[in-house]
TrEMBL record:
It comes from the Bacteria. The keyword Transmembrane helix does not apply. One of its GO terms (molecular function) is metal ion binding. It comes from Prauserella flavalba. InterPro entries: Ribosyl_crysJ1, Ribosyl_crysJ1_sf. The keyword Magnesium applies. This is ADP-ribosylglycohydrolase. Binds 2 magnesium ions per subunit. Mg(2+) binds at residues 64-65, 286, 288-289.
Length: 703
């Protein structure tokens, strides 16, 4: 693995600060989003602390500002070697968005800008026409989304405002046009230049060079003339509302009203990070969006140390975020992972290739904990976690013993029924977790464990104890199966010994599970067709339910009903299920899914054929096919394997088809149904021996 240069490490740390700054801003402003300004002031005054707990809400929740930023940023790595055009950005939308469920505000055609653009894309209207004024009118085209969903692109292009603006405009034009694109361009240029320029006035001077609209230019000049740290933030807010508030613009959340408030917060706080996100969170308007934009820019501009000044806004977040898309295994994430992916995308834009493989957890940046906290389910309030420097990099230091853990799936203690949060676990039974741990000084004992959610409560399973010494030692543990359950947290139990401290240098897993599956009748009641065992699945099929006679029922009224479970770590494996066909055009098993419009499948079609296919952005290519008459309402034992470039389809013990593919990146497994219903009895994944699940766990950035 190559060692980053000091310049590369400085850039990467600033990206991490920008990502973390965005998270802090969103989580600060999210609980009061939509509140009248007067109500925010009456209840909280200046929102300079996280108020979610006071409102009975979890801090880490699904949010469109976060999901869109990091999902839409995949346009670059998903099209490596190709120019990241508006049309390709539109295809990225279609691949990762599940209609009416993920990322967007699903407010309706002609009301929600992004919903309208999505429906245009679905109808075959390509970007940028999908978001154009010509297609949708200026009111829809100039709402806020362009400036709040595209931070990642400028982070990929430090010190290159021209390319940052061009890429941001292309991505934002999927859904927006007009003044909204100029607002996004201004912020993109400032964000790109902030890697090397701290002065806000200089950034604004340079950013305005990328504005073509006289209306936007006048707004920026006006806000700069009237806002600054010499004025109280409430005076700034009132002035912005009077001159540029929502009453001046059509639509529910106009870009210019929020641009004015974003700039007011930046100028009013000066170089105080905490105050800047607090002002944006307290002023009304689109609180979480504006605070997220402010936090990202000031994270890059002011650096990581600035995020630790004032109230402690880092510890409660613990780097955590959710990216809710059709690629469910990428949902549970953290600021380090997303920063590393942006850095890897930056290398791609510079003409480089994929980055070296790395463990999932390596605590690369100062203060990074990657979701690890004292375990909320097993106690350990006395446990202290810190990120420390070591001769080989950085490590997570665990002091005073106890249980520490990080989420690998949605934690039931944080579940919100009114948020559409779909996800698959990042870790599964049958996968092998590998860690490097040490215990300088007196030594210490470490045991891995996993937590599972059952109907009766939380189930804990432990691995064997490892005695850690002064030199890093390898801890390895295969996650055990607990019926049809999946783990939602992985942790380490550190024995309490006098003066003991354990260092976790790196930790992760790779490859598909040695064995993982669900079987039997999941249905507990005919009135509950979505039992807990279905939660790890992500479905773009309209109806995915437990069945009264077999394990699953998958039904969709048109093409493209996909249901998946798994992660991008799953590369070489076999998936097996007993399939029974009802009405259908095409149905079968899916492997290596990265979203729901990029996958390979083994399918039955038309009642008389089987085929191996590749689906890529709505184009389905047949790799191999043969005649195979089959019957409805009869069960077939179906296996689909992928190993390297080879795909193989086996039915009732007979290999019917093999084919080769040029795409070998890993992805999730599941089911495909086009126009009809398929019933499936059981679902089993078996990792191919020697392909990653028995050795130290690499993780390829953006792979």
């Amino acid at each position: 693995m190559s060692t980053p240069s000091p310049q590369e490490e400085h850039y990467a740390e600033r990206v991490y600060a920008g990502v973390l700054g965005k998270l802090i801003g969103v989580y600060l402003g999210r609980p009061v989003e939509g509140w009248p300004y007067a109500d925010i002031q009456h209840r909280f005054g200046l929102v300079e602390r996280y108020v979610s707990a006071e409102l009975g809400l979890p801090l880490i929740v699904a949010d469109d500002d976060i999901s869109a930023t990091f999902a839409f940023g995949r346009t670059v790595p998903d099209n490596a070697g190709e120019p990241p055009t508006a049309e390709r950005a539109g295809r990225t939308w279609l691949n990762y968005i599940i209609e009416d469920r993920t990322i967007l505000w699903w407010g309706g055609l002609g009301r929600s800008t992004e919903h309208t653009a999505y429906l245009n894309l679905r109808a075959g209207v390509p970007a940028p026409r999908s978001g154009s004024t010509e297609q949708n009118g200026s009111t829809l085209a100039e709402q806020i989304g362009a400036q709040i969903f595209n931070d990642a692109f400028a982070l990929m292009l430090p010190g290159d405002p021209e390319r940052a603006v061009a890429l941001t405009r292309a991505a934002a034009s999927v859904s927006h046009d007009g003044d909204a694109l100029d607002a996004a361009a201004l912020l993109a240029a400032m964000r790109s230049l902030a890697f090397g320029e701290r002065d806000l006035g200089t950034l604004l001077d340079a950013g305005t060079l990328h504005i073509g609209s006289a209306t936007v230019l006048r707004l920026v000049e006006d806000v700069r003339a009237h806002c600054g740290p010499h004025r109280h933030w409430r005076e700034i807010r009132d002035w912005v509302d009077e001159r540029y508030g929502y009453a001046h613009y059509p639509g529910p959340c106009h870009s210019l009203a929020n641009l004015a408030m974003t700039l007011g917060a930046l100028l009013g706080a000066g170089d105080d990070f905490a105050r800047s996100v607090a002002i944006a969170s307290s002023a009304g308007f689109d609180t979480d969006s504006n605070a997220g934009v402010v936090g990202c820019l000031n994270g890059v501009r002011l650096g990581l140390d600035a995020l630790s000044g004032g109230p402690d806004l880092r510890t409660p977040v613990a780097d955590r975020l959710l990216v809710v898309t059709a690629d469910g295994g990428e949902c549970v994430s953290d600021a380090t992972l997303e920063a590393d992916r942006i850095v890897a995308a930056s290398a791609l834009l510079a003409g480089g290739g994929l980055t070296d493989e790395r463990p999932r957890f390596r605590f690369r940046y100062p203060g990074s904990v990657q979701g690890f906290t004292p375990c909320p389910h097993l106690g350990g309030d006395h446990t202290v976690l810190t990120n420390v420097s070591t001769p080989d990099g950085r490590a997570l230091r665990v002091e005073h013993g106890g249980h520490v853990s990080t989420p690998v799936f949605l934690d039931p203690a944080e579940r919100l029924t009114h948020f559409s949060t779909v996800a698959s676990p990042t870790l599964y039974p049958g996968q092998r977790v590998v860690a490097l741990v040490s215990a300088p000084g007196t030594g210490g004992a470490v045991r891995p464990y996993a937590l599972y959610e059952s109907a009766e409560g939380v189930v804990t399973r432990y691995g064997d104890e490892l005695r850690a010494g002064s030199e890093p030692r390898r801890l390895a543990w295969e996650v055990p199966a607990v019926g049809n359950l999946v783990p939602f947290r992985f942790g380490l139990a550190v024995a309490e010994e006098q003066g003991a401290a354990v260092l976790v240098h790196e930790l992760g897993w790779a490859g598909a599970p040695v064995r993982f599956g669900q079987s039997g009748i999941l249905l507990g009641s005919i009135w509950d067709t979505t039992p807990p065992a279905l939660r790890p699945w992500v479905s773009s099929a309209k109806h995915f339910e437990a069945d009264f006679a077999v394990t699953y029922s998958v039904s969709h009224p048109g093409p493209g009903g996909v249901v998946t479970i798994g992660t991008r770590d799953w590369r070489d494996y076999t998936v097996a299920s007993r399939l029974l066909f009802s009405l259908h055009d095409t149905a079968g098993l899916v492997v290596r899914a990265r979203g729901h419009r990029r996958f390979h499948a083994g399918v039955f079609t038309g009642g008389d054929r089987v085929a191996l296919v590749r689906e890529h952005d709505g184009t389905r290519t047949v790799l191999a096919e043969r005649p195979f008459p089959y019957d409805r309402d009869r069960t077939y034992d179906v296996r689909l394997g992928c190993a390297g470039t080879e795909l193989a389809l086996t039915v009732d013990g007979t290999r019917l088809l093999t084919a080769h593919t040029t795409e070998v990146l890993g992805g999730a497994a599941g089911f495909l149904i086009d126009t009809g219903t398929i019933l499936a009895d059981g679902f089993h994944v078996t990792g191919t021996p020697g392909t990653g699940h028995h050795h130290t766990p690499p993780r390829k950035a953006w792979a």
